[in-house]
Write a structure and sequence with these properties.
about 300 residues, alpha+beta, Uridine Diphospho-n-acetylenolpyruvylglucosamine Reductase, domain 3, Enolase-like, domain 1, five-stranded antiparallel β-sheet, four-stranded antiparallel β-sheet, 12 helices, about 30% helix
């Protein structure tokens, strides 16, 4: 039995939880941790003949930023990684851990309360404290997934390797948000091994922006990644993804399509952002996030247009 198979079996047999960087697992510590750090083959970045990167799940966020080739090939990923947490956390937090982290809603983290994620049948945030909750309603649970890296990877149409099954698109990793009991779709004992990026797009323009309640070390209330290629002053291709707004990190194809064929201006960015806010159905206490989402999208798109 390989080391990765042994770790998977241990989690299944003990009801444990995988630990890599441990920045969230050890603060919750609700189940026995099963360490992944010693498993070979989960670290490092390798490159294919077409220039596509395979990033090991145990690569840290700081590793992404330290790799000049990776930053040049995938500028939106690098910009997103640079905004994650603090330097201390980036030095230990892993790519896989960031993608599979638990949501930050206070209800499932309070052992005295019950919700969909802790065996209950309701989402108490809907009628309770939902200041930071989703404004794009995807299902019973309204806790936004906190992975910033997932937003960038969605914009790149990346895939993830999972031990023992076929690769998944990043969108498939999270599903449509309709299952309120889970933050991702991996089964107990399944291990995310790597992220596979597509071949880099030549002359890509990219930007990442986030809105937070404080300047440093805060999960975003809204965040966005834009990727554009231009033919002269005209947008030839576009990809747009957001986080903090829905139960899952979310692609916005209607926003991307609205940008294609025109110049990047404040007016075109605003019109595209309005398509995203049309999806929103906020609760009484989080309507402010709709305006934040719109402003973040506009800022990201216009910044992307200015990037050379």
């Amino acid at each position: 039995m390989t080391a990765i198979e042994d770790a998977a079996r241990t989690v299944r047999d003990t009801g444990g939880e995988f630990r890599a960087g441990g920045t969230d697992v050890m603060t919750r510590a609700t189940r026995p941790p099963v360490d992944l750090l010693g498993i070979p083959g989960l670290r490092g970045t390798t490159w294919g003949p077409d220039g596509a990167a395979r990033i090991g799940a145990l690569a840290t966020v700081a590793d992404l930023l330290a790799d000049d080739r990776l930053s040049a090939a995938y500028p939106a990923l690098a910009a997103t990684a640079a905004a994650v947490a603090t330097p201390q956390i980036r030095n230990v937090a892993t790519v896989g851990g960031n993608l599979l982290q638990r949501n930050r809603c206070w209800y499932p983290r309070n052992t005295a309360l019950a919700c969909h994620q802790t065996g209950g049948d309701t989402c108490p945030a809907r009628a309770g404290a939902h200041l930071y909750s989703a404004v794009i309603d995807q299902g019973p649970c309204i806790a936004p997934h906190p992975s910033s890296l997932a937003v960038a990877l969605l914009a790149y149409d990346a895939t993830v390797e999972v031990h023992g099954r076929s690769p998944l698109g990043v969108a498939e990793l999270y599903g449509d948000g309709g299952d309120p009991t889970r933050d991702h779709r991996l089964e107990t004992g399944e291990i995310l091994q790597a992220v596979r990026m597509p071949a880099p797009a030549p002359d890509e323009r990219a930007a990442y922006r986030r809105a937070t309640a404080r300047e440093k070390a805060e999960w975003p209330l809204a965040e966005a990644v834009a990727r554009l290629t231009l033919d002269g002053d005209t947008v030839a291709t576009a990809a747009m993804a957001v986080g903090g707004a829905a139960r899952t990190p979310l692609l916005l194809p209607e926003v991307a399509e609205a940008l294609i064929g025109g110049p990047v201006t404040e007016e075109t960015a605003t019109a595209a952002a309005d398509l995203a806010t049309a999806r929103c159905s906020p609760l009484p206490g989080n309507g402010y996030k709709v305006a934040l989402l719109r402003a973040t999208l506009i800022d990201t798109i216009t910044a992307c247009g200015k990037t050379s």
